[in-house]
Amino acid sequence: MTQQHDGMDVAAAGEHSGAAGEHSGRDLVVRARSLDLSFGAHHVLKDVSVDVRRGRVVGLVGESGSGKSTLAKAIVGMNRIDEGELEVVGEDVSRPSRAQRHRLYRRVQYVPQDPYSSLNPRRTIGQTLAEAFEPNRRTARGRTDLIAEVLTRVQLDPSLASRYPHEFSGGQRQRIAIARALAVGPELIVADEITSALDVSVQAEVIRLLADLRLKGADHSMLFITHNLAVAQVVCDDIIVMRHGRIVETGPVDAVFADPADQYTRTLLDSVPGAKGFSLT
User: Using DSSP, how many helices (H) and how many strands (E) does the chain show?
Assistant: First the structure.
């Protein structure tokens, strides 16, 4: 896996200010500057700046409570930031309106940790995917080829389109959630801990799927949130390490894992089973 050090500029404000802003807006799917976000008295994001370039799979890692999911949800418009500037796929979403969130629907897709909660139990998978292709369409009729194509991309048999969510395993439902996101043709997919609720063998299958999509040159960027650095190593091009609401380290995966600059990153890497040289491949 070849990595380029200029693949992503991610900067914690004040620490890497020279790196941020070197790329034009056309190169970026996410441009964040000095983001702050609090829930009551709890300061969750603290002076966070990040650029994510188009076509990259970026891992956002850190322990529970580090702020990674809060940042991800701000990027998709689910959390409103208190201070700072946030542009996603070229649109200012610092204070997103309902109209902005609606416009972003087809350009930015969010895949949650629990796909079952986001799938309508009364609709077949084919109906769900048909609605993703065309929101006003209530049936799969006329979309058979497109549905078959997207199911094949996530390594599911197209004949499964007539089944309902409860008929699938957790790993299959996660593949369906990924298929629905892909069906919209987004510029950015935000995947929030999508492997953490799966058992080890099923988790490995989903990881291999994501790695395969990446190797085939998928035409979207992905922000992949995980607490598992071994997973990030396989899936991602670049990595952002968060701690206590701040970005502590960024860079290409291979470079960061080979020579982490921050002590917190070193501690996370040392905690991975097998430690140095670990791999899920």
Answer: 9, 10
